[in-house]
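Subgroup meeting minutes
Present: P.N., E.W., G.H.
Scribe: E.W.

1. P.N. recapped why we're keeping a running log of single-chain structure predictions: easier to compare across weeks, and new members can see raw inputs and outputs side by side.
2. G.H. added today's entry (139 aa).
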Amino acid sequence: MKHPIRTTLLVVASVVLLTGCSTTQLFQLRLTVVNQSDGKPVPDAKVTLDTMGMEATKSDLDSPWPHDGKTDKAGLFIHDYLISPYPSDKPHWYLKVSKDGFEPVVIDIKLMPQPAKSKDGPIPLPVTVELKPKAEAVR
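Output recorded in log:
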């Protein structure tokens, strides 16, 4: 190496700048899924939070794959998501909920303005989704 000190300083500065520019924030999705017709909980609904925010995959219920989980018997789904970088530079976060016998739902849940970074634990994201039963085919 012709300039070892300068090269070392450049490498250290690059590492500090690249790793120091990205922060993360923990969010906790607290989802309740109910039947739009009767208000009863919908168990086993498939849930995906797509934090990539790509319009091309908005309606693709399997993107990103694998899905994050399913609602429990009470129609509840609680899951922690780490968002990085924070504040997020993605235009949308899509919450995708589906279950056989119901119309799927895709909603934009990105908070605007984004809340301040929290040091006291995850930022809660309480969401209630009403799934509409599919109309039965007339024979």
